Amino acid sequence: MIISNDMTLTQCIEIGFVTQGQVDSFNKKLERHNKRELDKKRILEISEYITEHSQEAKLYRTGDFMKRCMEDFKQFIDDTPGFEDKRVVIHKLITRSLKKLVNDGVMVVTNSTGNHAHNRYGLTPDLDALPAFASIAEIEEESINEE
Questions:
Q1: Domains in the chain: boundaries
Q2: Staple 107 to which of 37, 94, 101, 137, CB 3.0 to 4.6 Å?
Q3: Does residue 108 come out as left (phi exceeding 0), alpha (psi in the -120 to 50 range) or beta?
Q4: Model's pTM, two decimal places?
């Protein structure tokens, strides 16, 4: 027998090149890979949604996006059985999306405690658009000149 591209997996198992256990392991690995790719796609979609529905100078909690995401992304949770489980799935996706937006520099995170549940997220301010403020020295100099 010659090894060729036309060989089937069944023939490889019969010859002893691979075992059924290895095939099962490969399939599980492919399932995990496909799930990760699907999660990446979903996180990207929710990230775009969050960016579109966020206002400047406003801070958001993870839960602020829950209701609308559960309504607008029903396809992500259709195969999840219970209501609480659906909330958990969406909450995880929102959290991962917010982390992605922070890592990408689109949003900033603030937290005055060590508890990540108290994180607040806001759009990264455009520092170039802020007005220039006078320094204290300039204000004092102007007041001296006026006297």
A1: 9-146
A2: 101
A3: beta
A4: 0.70
